[in-house]
Amino acid sequence: MPTSYLITGPARGLGYALAKALAAKPENIVLALVRNKTAAEHRLAADNITNVHVLVADVTDDNALKGAAAEASDILGSQGLDVLIHNAAYVSEQTALTSINDHETEPTTLIEDTQQSIEVNVFGTLKATLAFLDLVRRSQIKKVVAISSGMGDIDMINEIRLSNAAPYAISKGALNVLIAKLNAAYAGEGILFMAICPGRLGADGHSSTVPEPILSRVKGIEAKFEAYVGVKVVPMRPEVAARSVLAAVDRQTLAGGFGGSFWSHNGTKRWS
Q1: Residue 149 falls in the annotated catalytic set
Q2: Is 66 a catalytic residue?
Q3: 71 membership: H or E segment, kind and range
Q4: Residue 74, domain extent
Q5: If you placed Cys at 65, which of 131, 139, 148, 160 could pair as Cys (CB 3.0 to 4.6 Å)?
Q6: How far is C-alpha 224 from the geometric centre of its chain's CA atoms?
Q7: 4, 92, 149, 272: which is the annotated catalytic residue?
Q8: Full-prediction pTM beyond 0.70?
Q9: What is the domain-level CATH number for residue 81?
Q10: d(C-alpha 21, C-alpha 241), whole Å
């Protein structure tokens, strides 16, 4: 029997690499949940990928998610959805390099970024999970995977005093708790909920000249990561990260004790 996958946020970066890797195996049934169907279909066509079903919904839009779930049900039928991968995420450029103490006198941006990060990264994941839950229940495999980040791990934050990107980190920490709570609620039905950190990814898009003050912050953050890992960290290409994430999805099971867990793609609790 073919294995079915649905990926949220597959327009670029890791999400697109996941869709591309899964579509390379003709026995897979691949569904991609996007906000812009035309753009997604054009990119897939440019790569000669013809076996991805493109569904349309923003993960924060309940009605759109219900419509996408109905369309997915028509495609998958009684087999259901084997693996749901939550990759859609909001990553703010405004606060990526700043710390909370940079916003002491005017915290509006910090608060608004945190609210938006939680809206997409936490509530969006919950809404999409509930929208497709009945399809997952039909499956014999029953896996729900959230792409998380070591940025949300309090042990690493404290170990290297990583203060930047607070809104994103807060949302990913909350996402990890959400996954644990979903596991507590649904493990009895045989559904595996787990979070995976894909490692450090290379930038998706064009490079540009970075002003010196920003470059100094970037170098400072990189130095902390390298001290944490113990070696120079080379960002992975999305296609490499996708293969590693999918290997983790395959090997981790509810019976193996991975319900509600948060692991790195490399099978450890070190986020590299």
Answers
A1: yes
A2: no
A3: helix 62-76
A4: 4-264
A5: 131
A6: 23
A7: 149
A8: yes
A9: 3.40.50.720
A10: 11
